[in-house]
């Protein structure tokens, strides 16, 4: 929505008629119901957001983790999850997941499991160090 001077677009008689109701103030003239544009439609930003969201879904379906996508697109993990699992994209995500080959699915599982195993190993290592430190103190 932008400011437009009434003198620039309206006939003089209509401006004078309006001045009988309001002078020197802003007035909002709503769009006709059938001519209303959705958010981002005029600027094209809606298309840009849809393109980005499709990229996110494709990257996730190709094996990128939610955390990686959050960092790459500078969005929160919650926002990435919302995009991936949103109602408008659930059909696309489901179709893409069906297209994944068993090798891709196995690779993704191995990546996730290796990450979990690394974390468990690291935590166990810390536990042993803390335990040996306690033994030395006693």
From TrEMBL:
Signal peptide residue numbers: none
Q: Name it.
A: Mor transcription activator domain-containing protein
Q: Which domain of life is it from?
A: Bacteria
